[in-house]
Amino acid sequence: MASNRVHGSTGEPICYDERMIALVLIGALIVVPILLGLFLRVSAVLLFASLLSGSLFVQYLGDDVALAINAATRNPQAPLYAQIAVLLLPVLLTAIFARRSMSPSKLLLNLLPLISVGLATAVLVLPLLPSGVQANIFSNPYGNILRQTQDNIIGLAVLLNLALIWISFKTAGHDKHGKRH
Description:
By secondary structure, the protein is mainly α. It contains seven helices and two strands. The longest helix has 29 residues, at 44-72. Helix 2 packs antiparallel against helix 3 (78-97) and helix 2 runs parallel beside helix 4 (107-125).
């Protein structure tokens, strides 16, 4: 069943299924990092550092990865998906190798930073998706909000994760009771 709305760049009708898929994709991009942090008990700080590392990999090695993938396959979308894999692989590996690195008592303290990591993941993945998928996502009201607030989302994620570092990690030279040695 198609809606009466048309796609802004192509003029084709937008299907309700496409809008639902866009909403599910946005939700998955946000929720999966949160769930990884909560269920595997991985600190938001570690996941955020991994996400930023993946972003740097994409920025500095993404073109090389795309060229290698282009040479190996005839699929024109493969380089885009390879860049997404390069972005997310550090997060996934950190979740696996750092599982249970956070005590259960710190889960609540990590909740807001984990949510910010999920939002930042969506912000960083969306520009790497094929243009048609991006158009479907940004035609969705939630996708449009995500696009309009992406700089705020990244800034908030940085601040929340820095605050978590400052709160969570004790300074060198202090024991649990604050006595100096």
